[in-house]
Input
Amino acid sequence: MCYDISFTAPIQQVKAVFPDLIFDEEIYVHPESNMHIVGHTFSNHPIIFTNRADLKLYCRLMEWGVIPFYIKDESTFLKQRASMLNARSERILGDEKSYWYKIRNRRCLIPITGIYEHRAIKGWKKKVPYYIQIKNEPLIFLPGLYSVVELPNHSTGEIEKRYTFTIITTIGNQLMQQIHNDGDNADRMPLFLPKELAKQWLQEDLNSVAYKNILHYELPSEQLKYLPVYTIRTSKDRPDGKRKDEFYEWEDLPELSF
Output
């Protein structure tokens, strides 16, 4: 699945791709803290979506990890929320009982600079993390779905609208199946899209055929750039003093082939 992302690009780069984008609020990207964003912290992230009131493109902060619109008490949903960080592409149109089907038309894009995924190696105690990007694409737009729920603010007692999102995943291509090769969700990857399809994802008149074609898209392995990096799920600095998203040489690391 996809629980670790990076977003270190200036927010102005998003505006360069979507010139008509309207920002709901002032958004600043913190390169250091955004170098590794962990889904299970349910943190805020700038999300692009089509506003239903005026059909214009907006960008606003939303929390990663969907809270369904029917939830009335957030505390009762905390354990389940971790399962709402990602949405399987197969369920969006193929499972009419799923929540993803209910919000299938609340489409959004998640701007990132890359993702992290872990590879299990036989005989090794630790998994090796990789930093993965699309070649020649400093900015990636992952497709997702968003949800809006009204919940009480425990500090003020007032009812507030909460915007939350999920990242869509699909069956991994040949490269990603070798990297994400362990665990309950092995062989999955985010639904990486070229910019043309990412923009199409937000079109209000997206028909069912185009919708299915996007969900079934597979980015060729050779279009991905992948670097082994040092352990990311630690508060300690790297022993070589480099950034989390920079190459780290693991001794005797078996090569990937595709």
